[in-house]
Design brief:
Elements: E1 7-11, H1 21-31, E2 35-40, H2 52-56, E3 63-64, E4 67-71, H3 81-102, E5 110-115, H4 122-132, E6 136-140, H5 146-150, H6 157-172, E7 176-179, H7 185-190, E8 201-203, H8 210-213, E9 230-235, H9 244-254, E10 260-265, H10 271-280, E11 286-290, H11 297-302, E12 306-310, H12 323-331, E13 335-338, H13 341-350, E14 353-356, H14 361-372, H15 376-393, H16 396-416
Parallel strand pairs: 1-2, 1-5, 2-4, 5-6, 6-7, 7-8, 9-10, 9-12, 10-11, 12-13, 13-14
Antiparallel strand pairs: 3-4
Length: about 425
Amino acid sequence: MPESKLRILVVTQYFWPENMRINDLVRDFTEKGHSVTVLTGLPNYPEGKVFEEYKASPDRFNEYFGAKVVRVPMLARGKRSINLVLNYFSFFTSASTIGAYKLRGEKFDAVFVYAVSPIMAAIPALVMGRLKKAPVFVWVLDLWPETLRAVGVLKNPVLLSMVGKMVSWIYNRTDYLLLQSHGFFENVKKYCTKDITPQRLVYFPSWAEDDFSSSATHHSTLLARDDTVFTVVFAGNLGEAQDLPAVLDAAEQLRDKVAVRWVIVGDGRMSEWMSQQVHSRGLNNVLLLGRHPLEEMPGLFASADALLVSLKTNDVFEKTIPGKVQAYLASGRPLLGMINGEAARVIGDSGAGFTCASGDASGLANITLALAKTDAVELKAMGQSGRQYYLSNYSKPLLLARLEDLFRNATLRKATR
């Protein structure tokens, strides 16, 4: 007897045409025949203003691979901190009220929250879960309020305590908390004042986008392969958390010692500073390529000899596994990590590369030099080891099948009660 199809509501502030991992989840569940509805806002990330293509023809974005997309009004992120706060506030209030009205009369078996920052995106899901009598699953991808403190967004102890109380309120009303890292468990438990049974806290990591996990051969239009130089690629946000000054210090230390080029792809708050530093320090071994679409990355990674992940050290970041780690592993290339904690453990356990302590520019220079001197056969073995580790631990089909089982079991428990 075939299994029944699920009615799933996905609540996310960010969704297609914004480039987010949640898009993969929605597409996968619709392709399996489930009925999926997405409650989301207006696409404006990361530029900070609503996409022109959406403004020109919003009706084109009401369906995604068969999933119904319900959008609510919200303020765009803009470029200032106050705009970002208003962006967060406007989404969860609008989704909790207007969203609830737009979804009146509809029934769901599960409500799933894509809980990257801000955690307040879970509030409309709790509202919908109560109205629809459906279990709520929150995928916790950031630790609040600790992340706010770690990146310097919020420092006032009173305000941090208030955010902590809100987090506790959300966690205690959520049926299932899905945690992206083993390091999250103790932190999340601190905010769970109610009795939390083991089945309510579930380890559920991220996966790499389909283009990275494909075994197809990719070619880069951004960077030509050059076997005369060892190519290290860093891709992603260029922010303070990525400790880019230490990366440039490592590049400077190796400039006259070995043929290594450092390719930096992405943008962020540190972009202008990076450009100035590369110019003023004469770092002709550092290439800044700017931001490019996700579909360009697999080809770029294929042109690299190693892929770099770096993150400043603090108690929050050490518990987090940056999403790029899964993409790097799936790409089958050796990894360099200037990082502590869970991410360093994954790189070590996978056998995919070398790590040094966060902020250790000399350490990064040393492990880069060691990797550059490693023979091609061993480099290939490292990359293959990382890819096999990815397939065993982070592959999308594996994880989404597990999530489907969680939804079904929750539905059965609800029916039994």
